[in-house]
Design a protein that fits this description.
about 170 residues; mainly alpha; Four Helix Bundle (Hemerythrin (Met), subunit A); about 80% helix; cell membrane; Nuo/plastoQ_OxRdtase_6_NuoJ; NADH dehydrogenase (ubiquinone) activity; NAD; membrane
């Protein structure tokens, strides 16, 4: 294993991504959870940069870190919480940890048992312009349906917030 700057950056960004995900699960305030999720998304964008996928990194920043996190924050701020938070059951937490550890073990076993070929596709023939043409010509309907779905979710959060404030 060669220790160079790219490996160290990948390691640091991986730790930040995993740490952000763990903090998102363990925080109790929803806004802090959303910020931890944004940290995870930004770290994943950095990992894309270390893998020389700059376009994916920019899409990650624009769509996930920007749009999805802001949409979640709007949804959180526009709806009020009902009831009080319940205290965690220690048995449930122990069984959850065992379940997650078992899932991680099975996942790692499956990854290490899967034979991956060393061949890669021709990457020089694919460009960002071709990707843009494919997305906006061939997949324009799913792209627009996704944007309408996000807009409906935001409008629904606003309607729920208005109904709760009138009651």
């Amino acid at each position: 294993m060669e220790w160079n700057g790219e490996f160290i950056a990948f390691f640091v960004l991986s730790v930040l991504a995993i740490g952000g995900a763990v903090f998102m699960i363990n925080f109790t305030r929803v806004v802090h959870m959303a910020l931890a999720l944004a940290c995870t998304f930004l770290s994943i964008a950095g990992i894309y940069v270390t893998l020389h996928a700059e376009f994916l990194a920019m899409v990650q920043v624009l769509i996930y870190t920007g749009a999805v996190t802001i949409l979640m924050l709007f949804g959180i701020m526009l709806t009020s919480r009902q009831g009080q938070e319940k205290e965690g059951n220690p048995w449930r937490e122990a069984f959850s940890f065992i379940g997650v550890a078992a899932f991680f073990g099975v996942l790692m076993w499956a990854i290490y048992q899967t034979p991956f070929s060393g061949e890669t596709g021709p990457v020089d023939s694919y460009t960002v312009a071709q990707l843009g043409e494919t997305v906006f010509k061939k997949y324009v309907i799913p792209f627009e349906v996704t944007s309408v779905l996000l807009l409906v979710a935001l409008v629904g959060a606003i309607i729920l917030a208005k109904k709760e404030s009138k009651s």
